[in-house]
Amino acid sequence: MAFTVWGAALAAYVVAVTGRTSLGVAGLQAADRFEISAASLSMFVVVQLAVYAAAQIPVGILLDKVGSRRVLVVGAVVLAAGQLLLALVGTLPLALVARVLVGVGDATAFISVLRLVPAWFPAQRVPVLTQMTGIVGATGQIISAVPFMAVLLGHGWTPAFVSLAGLGVFMAGVAALLVRDRPAAVPGTTRTAVADVDAQGDDAVQPVGTGAEVPPSRVRAPAVKKKASLSKVVREPGAWLGFFTHFLTLFPTNTFILLWGVPFLTAGQGLSAGAASALLTISALAGIVLGPVSGVLQSRHPMRRSWLVIGAFGFVVVAWVSVLVPSTPRPMWQLVVLVIALTASATASNIGFDFARTSVPADRLGTATGMVNVGGFVASLLSIFLVGLVLDLVRPGGGYVLDDFRLAFSAQAVPWVAGLIGLLAARRATRRRMAERGVVVPPVREAIARMLGARGDGSRREP
Ligand SMILES: NCCCC[C@H](N)C(=O)NCC(=O)O
């Protein structure tokens, strides 16, 4: 039942990602239909990201009030309405309205799925399933690139977007039929285990475990939940740790994949369009390997999750510096390392949701997840804007060359520095809060020494 619920919600998220990426593959046709330059198409990306980010907190609060099922159903219908409008209109302002609807619908999917996972699965599995949600969701991009593109080329704009609208309505039906916000009884636990969770009261938080099985979190029926969640969530340092984790690690990938990566690889590095798309494919494949690895490390070493984040951040910074410092195009292997580093960074962004899960009670998880998601998308908007701004300043007429991109991508230093300062401050505050709750994070040196000692004793678990 847990996998059926997760699978149905995940399918809705795949369709949301298809909607999100559909305009990207229909760029030429959109430029033609709305009589705009290819460069103006970036406006659609910015509108979409801004709407997505702005909708996260309201959608998160709604999730805590009415549950994932209703939010997913309404979100899929709104997304379908946006696609239908886009299918029918021929003017830019109406197309932007349609894109706003698509952005709002899209904003409901990911955080609705993430709210279901800890309600249906034991805590130890949550990090891997969260990573799997991101990986499977990304296949929506393949639906845009292959079947959607085939309908677009074979039958034209209106049938292509009407079929996406149909898919949205279908997913609303699937979510209504199969998604349940919580199990009728907590599976795999005894009555006592449930009573124990209840005994901790309304504010019980999923513990930062040490790899032991913790029962699925108890999500109470909406009628029982009355408290305003936002003010409590923003006072929780762990939610900010999640926010800055997502802020620091998601934007390099979004900046590259959503807008500036292909121009940099083709106009800047001199690759063919085919070689550039091969690099994007390598990046997607790397995610399939890195996601589960990160999920397993997160559940085995929950006290060291921030080191995974800082490691991924260090990897992508070193990869970018090694590509941007030399003034000549880089060899293919170095660009491969860059796209793998970008994927590692996006993978680490999901650790932000895990910080939220272990910092706020299950009844406020929707709000906290929305807040974490805002971090990555606000940073993405800032980074995409800064890269575009520098390109505009150094070469106002377009026709960018490698030196322009070297300068422009260096602007990512701004969100990196801001994100790192926020992350370190939030980590310190979170550790203080954990200590108040009786959980003390031992220094890394001590933890490594204990692990080595434990290995000598034949034990396999970190203390
Ligand atoms: N394979 C990496 C996926 C990263 C997902 C990312 N952390 C995220 O927040 N996604 C939100 C969404 O709506 O897709």
UniProtKB/TrEMBL annotation:
Entry annotated with the keyword Phosphoprotein: no
InterPro entries in the cross-refs: MFS (IPR011701), MFS_dom (IPR020846), MFS_trans_sf (IPR036259), MFSD1 (IPR052187)
GO CC terms: lysosomal membrane; plasma membrane
The subcellular location is: Cell membrane; Lysosome membrane
Q: Which residues form the Major facilitator superfamily (MFS) profile domain?
A: 1-431
Q: What is its main location?
A: membrane
Membrane topology according to the record:
Multi-pass membrane protein
PROSITE patterns named in the record: MFS
**Keyword match rRNA processing:** no
Catalysed reactions, as listed in the record: L-lysyl-L-lysine(out) = L-lysyl-L-lysine(in); L-histidyl-L-alpha-amino acid(out) = L-histidyl-L-alpha-amino acid(in); L-aspartyl-L-lysine(out) = L-aspartyl-L-lysine(in); L-alanyl-L-lysine(out) = L-alanyl-L-lysine(in)
Give TM regions.
Answer: 40-63, 70-90, 96-117, 129-154, 160-179, 239-262, 274-295, 307-326, 332-353, 365-387, 407-426
- Alphabetical UniProt keywords: Lysosome, Membrane, Transmembrane, Transmembrane helix, Transport
Return the Gene3D superfamilies for the record. Answer: MFS general substrate transporter like domains
Q: Name one GO molecular function term.
A: transmembrane transporter activity
Q: Which PANTHER family match?
A: MAJOR FACILITATOR SUPERFAMILY DOMAIN-CONTAINING PROTEIN 1
- How does this polypeptide assemble, per the annotation? Homodimer. Interacts with lysosomal protein GLMP (via lumenal domain); the interaction starts while both proteins are still in the endoplasmic reticulum and is required for stabilization of MFSD1 in lysosomes but has no direct effect on its targeting to lysosomes or transporter activity.
Primary role: Lysosomal dipeptide uniporter that selectively exports lysine, arginine or histidine-containing dipeptides with a net positive charge from the lysosome lumen into the cytosol. Could play a role in a specific type of protein O-glycosylation indirectly regulating macrophages migration and tissue invasion. Also essential for liver homeostasis.
Q: Which family does it belong to?
A: Belongs to the major facilitator superfamily.
The protein, known as: Lysosomal dipeptide transporter MFSD1
